[in-house]
Write a structure and sequence with these properties.
With about 150 residues, this protein is mainly β. About 5% of the residues lie in helices and about 40% in strands. The protein has a domain of about 100 residues: Umud Fragment, subunit A, CATH 2.10.109. The chain is built from one helix and ten strands, in the order E-E-E-H-E-E-E-E-E-E-E. Its EC number is 2.7.7.7. One of its GO terms (molecular function) is DNA-directed DNA polymerase activity. Belongs to the peptidase S24 family. It holds the Pfam family Peptidase_S24.
């Protein structure tokens, strides 16, 4: 099964700023001591547009359906932030139109040949030789919701 996508929209240059609290505390995924309560009030903020959308005119968002990229951290229901201005290089995760089908795959060179590879061992790499492939953009970020 190929990952299916739904284009949700394009980032806009004039998106309003939405600065949310962003304390200096680092979240450790393990055991640690408790941070100082005073750190919560340092006044730092984070605007997600500023953080994840580097080039608004070249950025669009896609919703993902499918399981072909699960080992690379992309699951069904995730939202992708895709940048069309980045030149694709091996190792990048791409959104591409391959023989008329939109897909999300990692770009790799295998045995000297360019391929699009999934993040699920059930799906074979797609050699790009003799295929019509149009790269729509490079995935810059993945937004994964845990609780809705």
């Amino acid at each position: 099964m190929t990952v299916q996508l739904q284009i949700l929209g394009r980032a806009v240059d004039a998106a309003p700023a939405l600065a949310l609290p962003y304390p200096l505390v680092l979240g450790r995924a393990g055991l640690s001591g408790f941070p100082s309560p005073a750190q919560d009030y340092e006044g730092r903020t984070l605007d997600l547009n500023e953080r994840f959308v580097k080039r608004p005119a070249a950025t669009f968002f896609l919703a993902v359906i499918g399981d072909s990229m699960i080992k690379l951290g992309i699951q069904g229901g995730d939202l992708l932030v895709v940048d069309r201005s980045i030149d694709p290089r091996p190792g990048h995760i791409l959104v591409a139109l391959v023989d008329g089908e939109i897909t999300v795959k990692r770009y790799e060179i295998r045995s000297g040949q360019p391929c699009l590879c999934s993040g699920n061992p059930r799906y074979a790499p797609i050699p790009l030789e003799n295929l019509d492939c149009q790269v729509w953009g490079v995935v810059r970020s993945v937004i994964h919701e845990y609780a809705v």
